[in-house]
Specification:
Shape of chain B: globular
Number of strands of chain A: 11
Mean pLDDT of chain B: 96
Helix content of chain A: 25-40%
Shape of chain A: globular
Distance between the termini of chain A: 8 Å
Order of helices and strands of chain A: EHEHHEHEHHHHEEEHEHHEHHHHEE
Strand order of the largest sheet of chain A: 3-2-4-7-1-8-11-10-9
Number of helices of chain A: 15
Helix content of chain B: 25-40%
Number of helices of chain B: 12
Largest sheet of chain A: 9 strands, mixed
Structural class of chain A: alpha/beta
Strand order of the largest sheet of chain B: 3-2-4-7-1-8-12-11-9-10
Strand content of chain B: 15-25%
Mean pLDDT of chain A: 95
Radius of gyration of chain A: 19 Å
Largest sheet of chain B: 10 strands, mixed
Strand content of chain A: 15-25%
Structural class of chain B: alpha/beta
Low-confidence stretches of chain A: none
Oligomer: heterodimer
Distance between the termini of chain B: 18 Å
């Protein structure tokens, strides 16, 4: 990050992740916006740009929601940009906010993200019949399960790995009151015995659909120092950030280990001066919608060697008390407001290095990675955040 | 600010309904044309950004199909706005300020023709609890705004007809236009209303088209533009501002967001909208023109929408991008030294962007 102004996260807000039929979309969004601004000690008048992250409009039925949400986001007379890159969008939005600061176009940018899945039908929207395509109605799991099978085939991972990841993440969620799925009595046996949805993915290895929102305030260095001096809460410094996209459909593509994900991670680590990610990171918040994506992403972003990600799970290294906890918040498996899910990963990484993660705080977390993935694993966004000024 | 300019612009013909090509087929030749005009390869492009729209396209992740035209392999640095692609230009322009690359390609693709019943789509743009359930048809809120303008004495039905007549006549010179022609004002005024005081010709037609714009920075822009035999159109300023959503809680006759954006753009560019030779305005309805002229402070001599503007072709989510491209082309062909491009989004011009462009001294 040497060539540009240093970037920091100075405020974070999140709503409860749950089915929230009693709350309007605007109310849900406002909850996180208010919390993020309060964390940063800022008011609406202090914000000079807003970036909205949201997954497809068809998920919850509002076209171009930045228009309807202008008032809820306090965005009247501000520039508002609505970014959309699949599930990775929250990460893209945070990085675009950082770019606005680095470009000198804004000093304090509010990043807002949400989904209201209870007002739509996610699996329907992901399974729309298209001309010249067989309509399977299979949703996201139908897409990802063959990729998981291929991972298992290549790595020789035993089948309990997926069950163990599900247990780890759900146990982590019991430490996070905002997490949607609360299953303190979950066991490997319960996951194993839960219904098969998309072979080999079982019900308890799958993410829920949730309502929820998240917001963060991103600033440059001087503002971060001024704000944290005022609030007494430290900023999370961005040590590296990158996004990459690859084409979704062609024969030479490896969806088990997508090049775009590996390239994005390598770029972010290079900016952060990280050469041994497994040793230099204290935790990871990864976009893991189905349990097997933990070993898949650990390998893809260079934390584990190819074929060895599952061993980190098996050895307990990624559990809450392991040496590199993955998704201490409970992760996507415990709460998945899709439009916000990516930003939640970025925000959780920031809260950990700020020491503000509450009940799921990882002791001594100084450097963390936030990761978001979208589409058919073709959109990737990642940032490395740290407690130290880079 | 880093000097960033438009060095290429290409667009497909805007058709009322393209039933022969899918999204990628419409877009791919336009990308190829823009890139080829600069004598570069796709791999020479450092950043891609696009605008498209799931609701108009009637499918989730419409944008992924358009990416097939880019051929994102090896992996690329890329972003997307689910908005008019004018906002993708804004993101690409911001990205180029970082100095991590020198060339960015922006595309917008719109297929407004796909909806079986556009009235069933348009109201989903509104507050889903209080406004959308009213199911206003797609011209209803524009009609309210136009009526308010008449009541305030800002314009007249005859003046709106003149805007349409002038735009469609100008479009006779635009080979990409969907609609063009010579129309007498009294003939236009004899047409029936679709949302009084608006008639069918007062509304930009739905259509299908793609547009591609290439931005480049500094000397790289000069080099590429020279290869294309044109002058870079430097984007001296871009600013956009959002208004409240609720049509009932703002003065529909005044575009405060345009005023704010114009003031800020003026400070950034060092010249004002009043100083431009040509303005390309995102007029989805004829009544937007007098409002924009007033809010921007455009003097009588400013050439407005020489392309014919959106009233001659409106491929949703590419329409604002085309305004930037047309403005840049007027600078490239020497017919303007300074130009303004406006883009809008939302009901009754809720969200507005003002860009100021300038040719080399």
């Amino acid at each position: 990050m040497s060539r540009h102004e240093r970037i920091a996260v100075v405020g974070v807000g999140q709503s409860q992740q749950a089915k929230q039929r009693q709350t309007s979309i605007a109310g849900l969004v406002r909850e996180s916006v208010d919390a993020a601004l309060a964390d940063a000690g800022l008011g609406f008048g202090d914000i000079d740009a807003v970036v909205l992250s949201k997954t497809p409009d068809l998920f919850d039925g509002v076209m171009q929601p930045e228009l309807y949400l202008a008032d809820a986001m306090g965005a009247v007379n501000l520039p508002v940009t609505r970014v959309f890159t699949g599930g990775s969008v929250g990460g893209h939005a945070a990085i675009y906010a950082a770019h606005l600061v680095q470009a000198g176009l804004a000093e304090r940018v509010l990043v807002v993200a949400y989904s209201k899945e209870s007002e739509g039908d996610f699996t329907w929207a992901l399974s729309r019949p298209l001309p010249f395509h067989v309509s399977l109605g299979a949703g996201a799991g139908g897409h990802f399960s063959p990729v998981i099978r291929e991972y298992i085939h290549r790595s020789g991972a035993p089948e309990h790995i997926g069950w163990q990841v599900a247990v780890n993440h759900r146990l982590n969620a019991t430490r996070n009151p905002l997490a949607h799925v609360q299953m303190p009595d979950i066991t490997v046996e319960k996951v194993r015995d839960s219904p098969m949805l998309w072979d080999p993915v079982r019900f308890l290895e799958s993410c829920p659909t949730s309502d929820g929102s998240a917001a963060v305030v991103v600033t440059g260095e001087d503002e971060a120092d001024r704000i944290s001096a005022g609030t007494g809460r430290p900023p999370a410094w961005v040590h590296g950030m990158a996004w990459r996209t690859e084409t979704g459909h062609f024969a030479g593509r490896d969806e088990v280990n997508p090049q775009a994900g590996a390239d994005a991670a390598a770029d972010a680590y290079a900016q952060a001066g990280i050469t041994r990610p497994a040793d230099e990171l204290d935790l990871a918040e990864l976009y893991i919608p189905f349990s097997w994506y933990e070993p898949i992403w650990l390998e893809n972003i260079g934390i584990a060697g190819i074929g060895h990600g599952w061993r980190m799970v098996d050895d307990g290294r990624t559990a809450f008390d392991g040496d590199l906890p993955v998704n201490p918040s409970g992760g996507v498996l415990s709460g998945n407001p899709t439009g916000a899910t990516g930003l939640v990963r970025f925000a959780e990484a920031a809260q950990q290095v700020r020491g503000l993660a509450g009940g799921h705080q990882v002791d001594g977390a100084r450097r963390a990675v936030g990761h978001a993935m979208g589409g058919a694993s073709q959109f990737h966004a990642i940032w490395v955040v740290g407690a130290e000024r880079p | 600010m880093r000097e960033v300019g438009v060095v290429a612009f290409a667009q497909s013909d805007c058709l009322a309904a393209n039933r022969g090509d899918d999204m990628a087929d419409i877009l791919a030749p336009v990308i190829a044309e823009a890139v080829a005009s600069l004598g570069i390869e796709r791999s020479d492009i450092d950043f891609f950004c696009s605008g498209s729209h799931d609701f108009h396209e009637g499918r989730t992740f419409a944008y992924i199909e358009s990416l097939d035209s880019v051929g994102a392999w090896p992996p690329i640095s890329e972003s997307h706005v689910e908005m008019d692609a004018a906002w993708a230009v804004n993101e690409a322009w911001s990205w180029l300020q970082l100095g991590e690359g020198d060339v960015a390609l922006v595309y917008g693709i719109g297929r407004g023709s796909l909806a079986t019943d556009p009235d069933q789509v348009s109201h989903t743009l509104l507050d889903p609890y209080y406004l959308a359930p009213l199911h206003p048809h797609r011209h209803a809120i524009a009609g309210l705004q136009a009526q308010a303008l008449l009541a305030a004495g800002v314009t007249t039905e005859a003046a709106l007809a003149q805007v349409v007549a002038r735009s469609l006549a100008a479009a006779l010179g635009n080979p990409h236009a969907q609609r063009s022609g010579s129309h007498a004002v009294h003939d236009l005024l004899a047409q029936p209303y679709v949302a009084s005081p608006l008639r069918a010709h007062d509304a930009a037609p739905l259509g299908d088209a793609a547009a591609v714009l290439v931005l480049a920075a500094g000397d790289r822009a000069r080099e590429l533009a020279a290869r294309a035999g044109r002058r870079p159109a430097w984007i001296r300023a871009m600013d956009h501002r959002m208004a409240t959503h609720y049509p009932g809680s703002r003065d529909l006759t005044r575009l405060e967001t345009v005023e704010v954006a114009a003031q800020r753009a003026t400070r950034m560019a060092g010249f004002a909208p009043a100083d431009v030779d040509v303005a390309e305005l995102h007029t989805e309805y004829s009544h937007a023109e007098p409002m924009l002229v007033q809010a921007l402070g455009l003097p009588v001599g400013t050439t407005l929408n020489p392309s014919g503007g959106p009233l001659a072709g409106n491929p949703t989510t590419a329409t604002g991008l085309i305004r930037l491209g047309e403005a840049a082309d007027r600078i490239a062909d020497g017919s303007a030294r300074r130009a303004l491009a406006h883009a809008t989004s939302g009901p009754a011009l809720q969200h507005n962007m003002v860009s100021l462009l300038e040719g080399e001294e």
